[in-house]
Every structure is written in C-alpha cells, then in structure tokens.
C-alpha cells in the first residue's frame, strides 16, 4: 500500500485462483450466507449478508464485473492492507488490472464496478471498516509485473503471465511493450488441472483430489504412488510443451529473446519443462502484479498532482 496526500493506493490482483495485494494473498473463493455461519475466522459482513472468504472455488469468468463476488473479495483485500497499518477508515484509490487484450474494452466497466459505492461500511474478521473509494485505476496484466524493472530490459523480451484462468503474453523491445504483439488466451493453469483430472480418471477409473494435483504442480511431487505421479507428470509436461508452442506462435525465439515468466504457471515450467531455461527469468513474487499496479498508479498520480501544483 502506498500513500499520496492522505490517499491510500491499494493494488489488487483479481486472480481466478488467488486474490493478491502488495502484501497478502488469499484464495479466490467465497460462499454467501443469510445467517451467521458456524466458522467465522475469515468472515466478511456487508449489506446484511455473511461471506466466508477463501471458501470454495471461483469458475472462470471473462467479465468479472458481472459477478458480485469480486466486489466482496475486493473489500476483503482492502481490509487486509489497512489492517497492516492499524487503519479502519481511509480514502482509497484502487489500482487493479485486466488481461492484456481485454483492458481497453473492459476497464471502464470494471472501474465503475469497483467504485459503484463511494462510501462502504463492512466488517471483516470482526473489525469494522469504513472506506471511501475515491478513484480506480486499471492496468494491463503481465506488463505490471515487470514495469518496475523495465529500464533494465535490453533487446528483445517476452513476458508470459500464466495465471489460473488466462495466459497473457507481451512482446517488448528494450522494455517498451509492442501493442500489436500482445495476446490473451484462456490457457491458465486451471486448464492443466482439468486435463489432469480427466486423464487420471481415464487411466485409473479413480478420482483425484485437486489438492494433490496442486501439490504436484507446485512442487513436482507428492506422497502418492509412483504410477499416479507418472500420469500427472506426463499430462503436466504436455501442458507446458503447449505453453511454449503458443509462445513461439506469438513470436518467441529462445535463442534471441529473454522470457520473463510471472504468475502461478512459473512453477509448472520449472518442474515440467525439459528445454533450455538459460534465458528464462522467473518473477516468483506472487504479489508482483499488485505491486506493479500500485507502482503505476503512484507514478501517474504523483505526476498529475505535480502538474496541478498539489505536490
């Protein structure tokens, strides 16, 4: 979280798998209740409804503004950042993002969605919050994760932001994004999970818990029979090979370019890619995009305030 003239700039990465701020990460899950549920550790109360944050799993939704859940998850994200500074009331500027090629078409609607209530009162983890949404800035995913280091990027580079729902790729020349060479595909890590789930059932006639799948994808192994691990590994290797095939379709050349990988898909490449990784750089900070949104908003707003003589 950054501060500018008493405004709190809070970056939020609305992932399909996890919600990230500059300092926190929690599962993109939510269940709604009309009465107070039994377990209330991560409960948010708003408009006489009770929401358990981190429960369940959100399905892929191309237009997040059509789902009330992402608004509630946004309130929870803001609360986690304010709690770090012991604040329960604040004037907030939200800095968020959208998939690269969707940003232009959806940013106005998404900004309106996130700021639909200028003043919001809610309770999270038994703490009452009162916030004022003063502005919303929307930036492209992927690029935000590398923008703090863009001045160090020389020659040809490609950014691959592999999230749970989408894969965003962006071509850069000396750190400058090329608008005609950016792509968004529904090819996130959840597509790999679905393929493993289906393939495992086909081969064994048994169901495989997503927890096991996630553990293997993140670490490369799990406490399961070798025969089961071999099935999961083979499908994950096929998925990663397809990632690089698509990157090559979008202009990636491993001999002349550096590849910057961010998002949860980075661990899949580390664990299941058998090619040359000498020119691949991993941005392992899961909060990198949220930090990038804050960075971009802070730079823009400070320049705007300076031009108007407010700083």
TrEMBL record:
<protein>
    <submittedName>
        <fullName>ParM/StbA family protein</fullName>
    </submittedName>
</protein>
<feature type="domain" description="Actin-like protein N-terminal">
    <location>
        <begin position="11"/>
        <end position="143"/>
    </location>
</feature>
<dbReference type="InterPro" id="IPR040607">
    <property type="entry name" value="ALP_N"/>
</dbReference>
<dbReference type="Pfam" id="PF17989">
    <property type="entry name" value="ALP_N"/>
</dbReference>
<dbReference type="InterPro" id="IPR043129">
    <property type="entry name" value="ATPase_NBD"/>
</dbReference>
């Amino acid at each position: 979280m950054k501060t500018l003239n008493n405004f709190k700039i809070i970056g939020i990465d609305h992932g399909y798998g996890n919600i990230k701020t500059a300092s926190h990460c929690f599962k993109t899950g939510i269940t709604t209740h009309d009465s107070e549920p039994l377990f209330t550790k991560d409960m948010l109360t708003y408009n006489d409804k009770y929401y358990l944050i981190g429960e369940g799993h959100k399905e892929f939704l191309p237009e997040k503004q059509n789902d009330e859940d992402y608004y509630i998850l946004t309130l929870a994200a803001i609360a986690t950042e304010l709690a770090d500074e012991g604040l329960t009331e604040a004037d907030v500027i939200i800095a968020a993002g959208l998939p690269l090629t969707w940003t232009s078409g959806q940013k106005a609607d998404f900004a309106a969605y996130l700021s639909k209530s200028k003043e919001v009162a809610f309770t999270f983890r038994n703490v009452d919050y009162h916030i004022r949404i003063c502005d919303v800035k929307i930036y492209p995913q992927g690029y935000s994760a590398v923008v703090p280091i863009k001045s160090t990027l020389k020659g040809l580079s490609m950014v691959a932001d592999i999230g749970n729902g989408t894969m965003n790729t962006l071509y850069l020349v000396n750190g400058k994004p090329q608008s005609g060479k950016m792509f968004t595909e529904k090819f996130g890590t959840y597509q790999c999970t679905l393929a493993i789930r289906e393939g495992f059932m086909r081969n064994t006639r048994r169901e495989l818990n997503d927890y096991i799948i996630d553990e293997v994808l993140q670490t490369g192994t799990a406490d399961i029979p070798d025969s089961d691990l071999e099935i999961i590994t083979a499908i994950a290797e096929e998925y990663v090979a397809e990632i690089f095939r698509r990157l090559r379709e979008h202009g990636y050349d491993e001999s002349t370019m550096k590849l910057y990988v961010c998002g949860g898909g980075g661990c899949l490449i580390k664990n299941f890619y058998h090619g040359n990784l000498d020119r691949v750089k991993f941005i392992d900070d899961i909060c990198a995009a949220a930090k990038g949104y804050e960075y971009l908003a802070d730079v823009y707003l400070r320049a705007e305030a300076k031009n108007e003589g407010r700083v």
